[in-house]
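Suppose a colleague, Dr. K., hands you the sequence of a protein chain of 519 amino acids and asks what its three-dimensional shape might be. Before reaching for any lab equipment, you can write down a predicted structure in token form. Begin with the sequence itself:
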Amino acid sequence: MGLPWYRVHTVVINDPGRLLAVHLMHTALVAGWAGSMALYELAIFDSSDAVLNPMWRQGMFVMPFMARLGVTGSWGGWSITGETGVDPGFWSFEGVAAAHIVFSGLLFLAAIWHWTFWDLEIWQDPRTGEPALDLPKIFGIHLLLAGLACFGFGAFHLTGVFGPGMWVSDPYGISGHLEKVQPSWGPEGFNPFNPGGVVAHHIAAGIVGIIAGVFHITTRPPERLYKALRMGNIETVLASAIAAVFFAAFIVAGTMWYGSATTPIELFGPTRYQWDQGYFKQEIAKRAQGAIAQGASPSEAYGNIPEKLAFFDYVGNSPAKGGLFRVGPMVNGDGLPTGWIGHISFTDKDGRDLQVRRLPNFFENFPVVLEDKDRIVRADIPFRRAEAKYSFEQTGVTATVYGGELDGKTFTDPADVKRLARKAQLGEAFEFDREKYESDGTFRSSPRGWFTFGHATFALLFFFGHIWHGARTLYRDVFAGIDPDLGEQVEFGLFAKLGDKSTRRLPEGYVPPTGSPVK
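The predicted structure, expressed as tokens, is then:
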């Protein structure tokens, strides 16, 4: 009889050795993919401009995750922070990628070995000699190993005792660097943007996991609990494991989309809320106004704005700007930034300072409207010239650029002013080269958007998978359509007289234990 596609796992359900082989092969594939993808990204990565052409703009997916854990340099001598001539040692992109590939090969061989030599005594029930898995004890072993890894990562890798530390930056993503981080044990450790909280939580969770693992290895569950939760059923393990996976997937999707210390904007790009709330715009204005108040000219004030900060304040870098169906890195859309034009300031003929109303995240087109400090519309680019009341020609709008490539230049020609207004609608203005990457002019999503979408989608699927397999386990008789005790009544040859339990046939040489009702 042929098996349906969703019953393929039945070939290993009662085969402990080969069940292990399947898990080893799965881990080998994951590790091999990670190492291979890292090498591919390194092969196509352009490290020449860490500010205007960062890895998240180039569509790198694996490299940002390596960088946040302390891998920022290459054996080629470059670093993602722009330094040259660096010597990262083992903690390099190539070294870590090679380690994953070697690890994948060893797991591959282990999987083949366990698939071939599956019939090991360690998988046999000593009472019956039948293949069996002590699932509660296996759970304890896994919990212990996971706890040790979690504790070691927090106590040694992130703190820099045996590792490089982790990526730490300021709130505006300007001064990102590797740092040996100490744990934060107070209330401040619960701030999702505090790197010390990441260290403390890994240490604490690791200790709890180690204690719980030892407990489950040394303690047997009560019989009622064992039966109630179907702890002897491998599908219970599957349902529980899927629950852990979908929970983690929801958490990482949320922290990636909303931002946290584990998802720095220098490695994954800004979040959409930073554009929606004018996060970088306010910081740029605050720095410029503070400098002007201390006697600096507008050109000097905006000239001191870090180019990286200005670049974050560009809508094309928002993960929500590009559609999910426009595949490819962000540079395939708007192109390779070549330089900051400068901060554009608009003034009408009455001397009022005007600002362009910015493009919302989910809009492809938006009217060009200029407002004064009281949010009153003073100028626009009209759709119908015959009905225009606030056109640039009528209101006498001029544009002056401070900082950047056009520093100090004033534009009075309405055509030039309109061109600058359309650029200002997208945030700080930049020039782009669309030839290098053959860019098509449409926005793309950053790796932050892709990661969030992918993990939220799979988390939802795994959530329903958990419900499905958990229900199948707890209500096995309902799913099967029969009473679980019905087998003893109908199994051929089990009793000398069908259904008469007093005439049960016993294996040759079998001696019932004392007190057993079986005769």
